[in-house]
Amino acid sequence: MPEYVFNYLSGHRSELEKEGYEKFYKNFIVTDTMLDDLVAIGKRNKVQPDDKDFTKNKKVFQVHVKAQIARKIWNNNGFYPIFNETNEILQQAIKMFDRIPEINRRKI
Fold first, then answer.
1. pLDDT in tens, 22-63
2. How many CA atoms lie within 13 A of 69 on its CB side?
3. C-beta separation of 45 from 3 below 8 A
């Protein structure tokens, strides 16, 4: 993945920086073509893909590629909001914030 991100940014960094993080976060999509390029780099480096696993976890790969691109431009401030979309425990904890008044009432 690091090689793919490096190669991708060599041709897209300035346009992404110009758009800014908010637009990147909301609108940037890792396409199937991008994932195909990632797989090709892996094969070139003697990493054979597991097609079944890749298909099953496609969304995770997309999020991780997007997060790594963001990290290279906006450092960890760009990385973690995207990366944490795949952190199930964190996502469940965030949902619990809406239930705090309900949870506190149960203690009474």
1. 999 999 999 999 999 999 999 999 998 898 998 999 999 999
2. 28
3. yes
Task: Take residue 80 and report the two structure tokens written for it.
Answer: 């973690």
Look up tokens 């079944």; give the residue: 52
Cβ-count burial 18-52 (b if 16+ within 10 Å, e if not): eeebeebeeebebeeebbeebbebbeeeeeeeeee
- For the chain, give the number of residues: 108
Local structure of residue 7 (DSSP, 8 states):
H
Spell out the residues 6+ positions from residue 13 whose beta carbon is closer than 8 angstroms to its own: 72, 73
Measured CA angle at 14 (ends 8, 18), to 5 deg:
125
CB 104 within 8 A of CB 95: no
